[in-house]
Structures are given as C-alpha cells and as structure tokens.
Amino acid sequence: MAVVMRPKVSVCIPTYNGAAYLSECIESVTRQTFEAIEILIVDDGSSDNSVFIAQEYMRADKRVRLSVNKKNVGLVGNWNHCIDLASGQWIKFVFQDDILAPECITRMLDSTRPDVDLVAVHRSVIYQEGTPVSVKEMYEKYLSDHNLTNLFPNCSYISPREFTRILIQAPHGNCIGEPTATLVRKSAFAKYGRFNLNLISLCDWEYFARVAVNTGLCYVAEPLAYFRVQSSAASAAIRSQRYYRGTIIDPLIIRYEMLYSPHYAPARAAARAASPPINLKNRLSDAVRVACWEALATKDGGKAMAEWWSAVKSYPRLLSFSPSYVARIVLQGVRRLLSPGRSGARE
Question: Which is the CATH superfamily of the domain at 9-241?
C-alpha cells in the first residue's frame, strides 16, 4: 500500500525583541506531534537576545532556520517576508510570545479540505502577571462577542456564504483569531495577495476574511493555540499610542476593501442579495464621516488628522460620496435645523 505523504508545514515565527517568551514559544513548536515541519524564525532587527536564542535552537534542531532582516521592515512587513521564505505547502504563524498545544498542527491538518485554504482553532488567552482587570474584561468580552464557536456551533466547516453573512454584519469583528490560531495554504497568498501594509491592528483579520469569503474555512473548536496578552505586545502599544489609527482607520480601510477589492466580490454580491439589500457604499460613507469627526474631537487632533489624511492619500475614493447619499445627509441636516425642539426653530 502506497504511503500518503502529508503536506509540509512551515511554522513561521516573526520576532522582534521577543526574548522574554521566545524559548517557550519555540519549545511548543518543537514538541508538535506532527513532525514534518520547518521552523522558520525571521528576526526584524532585535536589540535583545532573540537572535541568540534562535541560534541555540537552530544548532539543536535541524528543522529550525533563522533569517535576520538587513533592516527593520515592521510588523506586517515581517509577516510578508516570512511568506517569501517559507517552503511549506501550509503556513502556520506562531508569534514570539504565543504557544501551541502539542497536537495543534496535527488536528488542524486532519480537518483540512482540498478546496479550503484556511483552518482555524479556538484561541485562548494567557494573561501576563499583573494584567489590569479592565484589560482582561475587555478581552473576555471581545472574545465572547467574536467567537466562531458561538457563531457556528458544532460546525467543522464554515462555507463562504455563511462566513460572508457574519462579515457583512461585523466587518471589523475578528471572530477567527490571531495568526497563531490559523493555518493557511501557501498558494492562497498567490491568489489573494499578502497582508495589507496599510493596516496596523486588523491586518490579520482582514487577510483571513479575504480568504474566507472565497473558500470558507475549516474549524477545530478546541483550545489548541494560546496568545499572550502583555504590556510590551504590539497590540498594547497600538491601544496606548495609536488608538485612533488602530480603532478608527483600520475598520474604515476594511470597509473600503470590501467595497472595491476584487477579492471581496462575494461579499458585495451577498450584500446586494440581502433582503433588504445592504448598501456597502453608504456604510463606508457613514464610517468616513465618523472617522473625520473623531479626528477633530480627539485630544491629539493634529496626530489624528495626520493619520486621517494619510488614509485618504492611500485610499482617495474614501471621499467619493454618491449624489443620493449627499442629498440624504443634506436633507437630514435641514430637518434637524427645522425640528421644533431645536433652539431658534420655528414654532
């Protein structure tokens, strides 16, 4: 009987000053029950001991490869560089402070389908000691609201149509999870492009949504991937230093991509077929107005406005409003001015 060879998996670990948890992360990968993997560590110019730690594992395990970028390319740029270097048929991202259960890759491969390019597992959280209660509560609420297990109970396969329905309802609600919770067929990156460099917070969600509206996804509803919440993580820096960019502009860009990108054609078709039809352009225009007002209202208005105009420069059609939309907004303004409850309005 012929032996069926399983596809090779590239486990990509993008690193940047991640020495604190990197050993624990790599150990969880080397202990996988599925052994036909390469472990690709791509460092983006760390100033701590990350490279030294990676070199130690490379000497101890022939599956480990290390690449050090000549210059810092940033978070999303490094993810894309990992894809360039990976030789496997499947790509499994694991972030430097995250860990996998030993059977994670085995279970994910067991769930795959020939025509599906994305697999996800239920993700769990490891909170760094001293994480504020408010941050824990924020994460727990988000994970409860945006959760494939809750949205699709007892489903091991979520069709493109089913996923698109959820995406249209919540375009920026990441129900799939962080890259550590996913497995992506490498050929998907040739078909659907790379991670979007214009996104800083929802770059993973947008890419996985881009794939899932076309092929759907397989789902293993077990906690086999763990991402760590800590004060030095990129997500924490975005919340504290680039809140407007991450929470206002990123969702705006996703709405833009849904309206204009050829990869989101299934989402546009689903919106038109909905009863009543969903006008994605008007929803984008509403989000544009909110983003502009938020930039004006924020404490650091200058920085927020710079972020706003940077987004407009990259996506000029953000300022393209349909005549019917403009007419509706003007009419709403006139009605507010003439409403009896408004000071100065006619009795």
Answer: Spore Coat Polysaccharide Biosynthesis Protein SpsA; Chain A (3.90.550.10)
